[in-house]
Amino acid sequence: xxxxxxxxxxxxxxxxxxxxxxxxxxxxxxxxxxxxxxxxxxxxxxxxxxxxxxxxxxxxxxxxxxxxxxxxxxxxxxxxxxxxxxxxxxxxxxxxxxxxxxxxxxxxxxxxxxxxxxxxxxxxxxxxxxxxxxxxxxxxxxxxxxxxxxxxxxxxxxxxxxxxxxxxxxxxxxxxxxxxxxxxxxxxxxxxxxxxxxxxxxxxxxxxxxxxxxxxxxxxxxxxxxxxxxxxxxxxxxxxxxxxxxxxxxxxxxxxxxxxxxxxxxxxxxxxxxxxxxxxxxxxxxxxxxxxxxxxxxxxxxxxxxxxxxxxxxxxxxxxxxxxxxxxxxxxxxxxxxxxxxxxxxxxxxxxxxxxxxxxxxxxxxxxxxxxxxxxxxxxxxxxxxxxxxxxxxxxxxxxxxxxxxxxxxxxxxxxxxxxxxxxxxxxxxxxxxxxxxxxxxxxxxxxxxxxxxxxxxxxxxxxxxxxxxxxxxxxxxxxxxxxxxxxxxx
Amino acid sequence: xxxxxxxxxxxxxxxxxxxxxxxxxxxxxxxxxxxxxxxxxxxxxxxxxxxxxxxxxxxxxxxxxxxxxxxxxxxxxxxxxxxxxxxxxxxxxxxxxxxxxxxxxxxxxxxxxxxxxxxxxxxxxxxxxxxxxxxxxxxxxxxxxxxxxxxxxxxxxxxxxxxxxxxxxxxxxxxxxxxxxxxxxxxxxxxxxxxxxxxxxxxxxxxxxxxxxxxxxxxxxxxxxxxxxxxxxxxxxxxxxxxxxxxxxxxxxxxxxxxxxxxxxxxxxxxxxxxxxxxxxxxxxxxxxxxxxxxxxxxxxxxxxxxxxxxxxxxxxxxxxxxxxxxxxxxxxxxxxxxxxxxxxxxxxxxxxxxxxxxxxxxxxxxxxxxxxxxxxxxxxxxxxxxxxxxxxxxxxxxxxxxxxxxxxxxxxxxxxxxxxxxxxxxxxxxxxxxxxxxxxxxxxxxxxxxxxxxxxxxxxxxxxxxxxxxxxxxxxxxxxxxxxxxxxxx
Lengths: 491, 491
Prior knowledge:
homodimer; alpha/beta; Flavocytochrome C3, Chain A, domain 1; 2 domains; 4-stranded mixed β-sheet; oxidoreductase activity (chains A, B); FAD-oxidoreductase_2 (chains A, B); FAD-dep_OxRdtase_2_FAD-bd (chains A, B); flavoprotein (chains A, B); FAD (chains A, B)
């Protein structure tokens, strides 16, 4: 059934009979981007009101694994002996995230080290610890991790590789809560007004110049208007749970995969932005993820499609890998290992099925129903390359090269419909480097800012993602929007 | 079988025993981009040598339908009464082609009117005639056509719609030859040296600074080196026929669709660029095309996926439509019409199969195996929208809205595996607005230019394409590269 996307109608100020309240700045949503925006706007002298749908702050950020992608020589990187700088970080982002907004990427790269210091000054806890292996998540408080494609070719040639995943010192899968707690406490300590169980359901916008001047709020049992003298910052999270938007932009996923998010990731931010004439971009950007690691040794296996061909370097970020699997015929792919690297995937979310074990590659090829000779040839070429330490086809890092020649052999089915993929959407409202919402002509809509997962930031495709690129840029652009709306300079 | 992409190795000058010939500028390929590059370099005072693989000039440009996407108020647009200008053209490109290189797009938009005059001054024939309908090709010499998404939502709101397809006054499917003929004659008349049946098989590149200083040429029975004092312009066409690149970047297409190109579109240009350290971008950009029109009345039908849902405005450019079909589950789609708009597709390349006719929508839904109630609901919603002249879901232009309510009903299968899709690749070597090849860091490689379909120009995805965006920007950036390599200013 065609489900219409329920885009709220903007309301004209003339149709607002009564403003229940008036402040300088309204921040819709109290995840990491909204919280940072509120803090900066407040500290720049603006009277701020946070309007949050849940019964408390935190949002999806608090339920995330708590990784901030940061670099440029942060205190943690320095402590771990990594020589990173703004130029290297920018070079990596420009090379790996193309297409992206270069202005936003350069601004983030230049300010990144200082932004880390700011986060730490708010009380966000980061240890001076480092994990050297390839991991998706760590069940301890270790901070610095390799979370992207820094060491994958060709990015390792574009920029000096450095680990840039900064995990807050919290435990478990929802370590993000340890990062949100001090930020929320700061808001309260500084007396920033917040109302909870309160949803922004429409923007109020002048007809003449398109200026956004307020919002309509729904609370259980009543609705009312709040006027914003300076502007509205939309920080409502992603559209991961918005079925019409997903069906429209990512129809392949609706049949095979599950969204990873919270119920309020229903696209309210994107929909509010669209209602005021902002433009949405990169809405087909997605991270479909079912990592083949840990354990890291599985990366020494190869991944083939139903033609028996490799199609990606196996050592790339798992989101990039998932994007490539998504593009294969039938979204079908197998992870092939020999007995020396065989192990069961440890990630409880991945659920890759062990198809079978075979004594020879020929038997495996037949068992998987691959074209005659295809897998034999792929493995012959790969093994020869691995033996001399150079993957000529995809340049997998020499660290992960080992001829797969010690039988028996095994295959895991990592196809979209056989494994268990989770997806996280990218894309959203088009914004500039200060978080201002842009229309189709790239003109800023007066009084409207969109930050965090409601906006299209860095990067715009899942092939380019690295863990931490939501909390990292989200917190940074939140801060910039907060200062800008309050009329304060940046930097 | 994993087929390795045979990237030529660059050769070091020290390893060149003998330079058979030396000129200022070598142009590899004599399609529209190479021809325009050679003319400009020659006229700026450089000694030029064209090296062309075929036995004569023209390339895929001469076999194309001969449409140049041009605007900004060309003489033809003015004659037809269309008020276009550089600003409107830029606005359209920036809105519809995102992501793209904004510098290249703005340069093209600003110079576009003058570029038309230049083409005409070379003898490229353009009539002062205009076709008002929606067409893919015209079997006559009519010039001005609507070939893109100018009238489709939201682009019609981003820029004042204007027709910008400028078809050369040639007949038939290969009208492009009528445009290439005068350009080739100019080259000959002005004494620009050219060798045919001659392929550039490798670049000669200094190790120290990466400067490209010559090429290795293969002729039947022999190979030799040519030195370029100023630089090499690679204009070798697309990688449409390059199986390894297609399998790597567009695996879905290898099973269902056919490349549209000439045998020498084997990616030589991309491969030469890669060999010298240039970066390739947008390699998954593609136009999969099997237009549902002509006749235009078929656009009044709706297109649904196997969930019985619409997913795109049916009046968009057929390449955009094809891209959306490509993303549907199973690449499956049906064109649904009622008896008032029923017609057989006229495009002989499309080969959409008529599935059947049915008395009622319910029977059609069952006949197509769509989920119960899905098509009934989709058509109920669409028909209500069409009746009031507003397609709320996808904003199909009111011109094409008609309730589909006069049975019997019919469906054409326009799925990738049931219809006959042809594809044209986009993407290629990353370049700047003067055609200089860029590396991963966006630094120019000295002495190397890449233009035409060997480069990633405007646009980079098939969703953004308009007919004529190969010959239009290809000829323009060819000219700019020609002047730049010769040391001449632009404009």
